[in-house]
Write a structure and sequence with these properties.
Layout: E1 2-6, E2 10-17, E3 28-36, H1 38-48, E4 54-61, H2 62-75, E5 78-84, E6 89-96
Parallel strand pairs: 1-4, 2-6, 4-5
Antiparallel strand pairs: 2-3
């Protein structure tokens, strides 16, 4: 069994754009949203390579925490979060298509 603990679970949003032009309107072509944080990332990869028993733990809260929890369950990864009063963090990345 693999057990991970993520102190600061997150919702990772990756925005794909054709190009970035400072001072201009930059249109997003695709947005990918997934649960993130180092422990969660380890669990997702372990699950992808066939590890059957994985438990993700850590701190989660608010609607972001609910998204993280339900996304992990949809992937078949068990979670056991400590629920906090605040909202889990969000991370935003922009990827430029070449």
């Amino acid at each position: 069994m693999i057990s991970t603990f993520t102190l600061n679970a997150a919702v990772d949003r990756t925005y794909h754009v054709e190009g970035l032009s400072p001072g201009s309107v930059n249109r997003v072509e695709l947005v990918k949203v997934r649960p993130g944080g180092k422990g969660i990332n380890v669990a997702v990869i372990a699950h992808a390579i066939g590890t059957q028993e994985i438990v993700v733990s850590g701190f989660a809260g608010g609607s972001s925490g609910e998204f993280i929890d339900s996304s992990l369950k949809a992937m078949g990864i068990r979670s056991d979060f400590v629920w906090i009063s605040g909202d889990s963090r969000s991370c935003h990345s922009f990827v430029q298509r070449n």
